[in-house]
Amino acid sequence: MTERQATTTLWRPTGPEELELVRALDWRGWPPRLPDQPLFYPVLNEEYAVRIARDWNVPHSGAGFVTRFEVGSAFLSRYPVRQAGGRTILELWVPAEELEEFNAHIVGRIEVVHTFT
Q: What radius of gyration, in Å, describes the C-alpha atoms of the chain?
């Protein structure tokens, strides 16, 4: 009998362009960061992800999406939780050069759970 690994649920607000790149990766990973994006920021709170997708992505891109995905908890322990404002504004800072390894620790598929236009 195989033991199931513990996972942590993460959320990612995203615009339509990034979402298409995730779709091209069969919903199993995040695309490489652009040169001006040294960090990948998944968040730990659905409400915070909704706020970013609705209030930032929609005005800037015409649409915003909130994705949900699971990552192995043991792997995530290398990234300290960062508080980026209020006490519920929590995110991880994953260096761009570690994103491929981060993607390898995603369990299952990335799913869209909210859409805003």
A: 14
Q: Which residues of 75-99 are buried (b: 16+ CB within 10 A; e: fewer)?
A: bbeebeeeeeeeeebebbebeeeeb
Cα–Cα separations (whole angstroms), residue 93 to 1, 39, 42, 63: 35, 6, 7, 24
Q: Tokens standing for 49?
A: 């992800």
Task: Spell out the domains of the chain, with CATH numbers in brackets.
Answer: 7-116 (3.20.170)
Residue reference for tokens 């994006």: 37
Sign of dihedral through CA atoms 80, 82, 88, 89?
negative
* Mean pLDDT per 10-residue section of the chain, whose length is 117 residues: 81 97 98 95 96 96 98 96 86 97 98 98
Half-sphere exposure of 88 (CA within 13 A, CB side): 7
Tokens of 28: 């199993």
33 vs 112: CA distance, rounded Å? 20
How far is the C-alpha of 46 from the C-alpha of 14, rounded, in Å? 13
